[in-house]
Amino acid sequence: MKTFATIFILGAVFFVKSTSSAADAPRVSPSPIELLMDCGTAYSNRLTSNKFDSSVEFREATKITMEVAFRNVGEFFVFPETLTSGVSIVWDGKEYKQKQKQPNNSAGLGAAWPPKSCYHDYFSLSDFVVPPEELTSGRHTVAVRVNFLEANTFVLPDTGIPHVVSSNSKLTVLFIAQTNSNRQIYAESSALTIFIKTPK
What is the pTM of this model? Predict the structure, then answer.
């Protein structure tokens, strides 16, 4: 009987610990955002805008561009800057944040991404604080992550009318039901292998 009581108490303690750990988890699972990434080189000129060539081998690390597809598989709207400002890079298993950017007066002009939508954006490796000694020649792995608060998302009432919500529109804010949650939304792309050559 004592053995049974001991097993029962140990099981109860384990259950309490596991449930408390789950309650403290800051991430939403499964994530309402999926990230798909490809590495290559981006070109833009007067005739061609945002032309992207996928590649595996690069002569210089500074030439690496990451094309990221943000797939909104959740039930909320989210503004582009909420996602793009929360992007970090995972270089050889270590996470690096974006460099501090100057305030952009045009920020907030993008339309919100609705549920079940997909958006593409481009990031350069030079946008992130990766130490120069980590950008050596040879084989590397790279992935992207995104973190943001669920409170920065919102839902709209189902009126049957398509919504186009701009983050600089003060009128539409009246109809937005913001999500009251301090949970952290997290997503990470699959890691890709790339090769860097030492410039001659």
Answer: 0.71
Q: Which residues pair with 187 in a beta bridge?
A: 146
Tell me the residue ranges of DSSP E strands in 27-127.
33-43, 51-54, 57-58, 65-72, 87-91, 94-96, 117-124
Handedness of CA 168, 173, 175, 181 (dihedral sign): positive
Phi-psi region of 50 (alpha: psi -120 to 50; beta: other; left: phi over 0): left
Q: What are phi and psi of 24, to 5 degrees?
A: -85, -10
List, for residues 110-157, the tens digit of each pLDDT value. Answer: 688 899 999 999 999 999 999 999 999 999 999 999 998 888 888 876
How many Å apart are CA 58 and CA 44, to the nearest integer? 18
CA-nearest of 113, 56, 117, 42 to 84 is 113
pLDDT, tens only, 141-197: 999 999 988 888 888 765 444 454 544 443 344 344 555 667 888 999 999 999 999
Per-residue pLDDT reduced to its tens digit, 56-93: 999 999 889 999 999 999 888 888 888 899 999 999 99
Domain ranges across the chain:
32-196
**Residues 52, 120 contacting (CB under 8 angstroms):** no
Q: Are strands 57-58 and 192-196 parallel, antiparallel or unpaired?
A: parallel
**To which residue do tokens 């990470």 refer?**
188
